[in-house]
Amino acid sequence: WGIWFSREEQKHTMATLPIVLLCALPASGKSEARKFLMNLTPEETASFRLGQTVQLDDYPYVEFMRKIDEELEKLSQPRIFFESADRGFIDGYNWGTLIECVNMDYHEMVSKIRIAPEHPFEWLAERLDVCRERCGRDRIVTTLSAETRAVLARELDATIMDHINIKNAEIPETLEGKTIVIEFARGGAHGSTFPLAAPFGYQYSLARLDTEILRQAAMLYIWVTPEQSRQKNIERGKPKADANLALSIFHGVPHHVMMNDYGTDDVEFLLTQSDRPDTIKVAHHQGEHFYVPVGRFDNREDLTTFCRADVAEWKSEEVQAIRSAMGEAFGRLLTQFQALH
To answer: Does 10 score more than 90 pLDDT?
Structure first.
């Protein structure tokens, strides 16, 4: 598919991709694409320069923010993160908070820090507030009353600890030969003009990633139109009775959020603004500039839905189609990654 290298060539070209940013609009096929990549043959994996993957994702923190708001509503207290259960952030700079959470998770992974907090909710509250402060925002969780925090701890401690255990289990003894996949989605309101104003879009969030991540990162972008994203989001909110819910692909995003946070995104715009082909030029908030190689996997013709089925049910023509498109995306990504590194 255009990027196959012999074993000898692989030794002299580049090692495993250390970090892949897996990005897209919601319901674009990220989970299905990830499942496909996890089922590559060793030869295919080597050709894509992917090692055994370990995962980082900002979505668990979104869920915790929503759960905190739900519990506050039960206490007849005001929400602190989201306008309502079916709307977006009260403070858009929480998109940056989420990236800072990823930065902290990344450093715990590379430093092999497996946390075991005695008070899980207090750990989460401190983490969220520290990450807000890094984005220039005030603390809002640790400043809740002791009585309120005690109730939140009682309701959420077990769920938070489950997340911590999963996070700890994902930390390998060594990252040698492995690829860290960092998954997140960003966008802006339908009808927005470019560049998207901070704190929306990838321009803002990429600039908040840790410089250690940006120095090593390449982006695999799953490309669908905003209209396709909205339609697929409606469909994925309807799990079939025999669906494998462990895939985490049946989580519909509220319509208001789809229109106002994911009504468009700025990946294509950022690609056109870079002075290197197939890269996004990131002006980091601390002053440095980075080029992030980008491979766009074109899923506008829906090459991924079949991946929801058991691997044994995949048809060869479907596999060939996704393999070809994925090969083209990785070919562009790897060309720029090699040129930069």
So the answer is: no
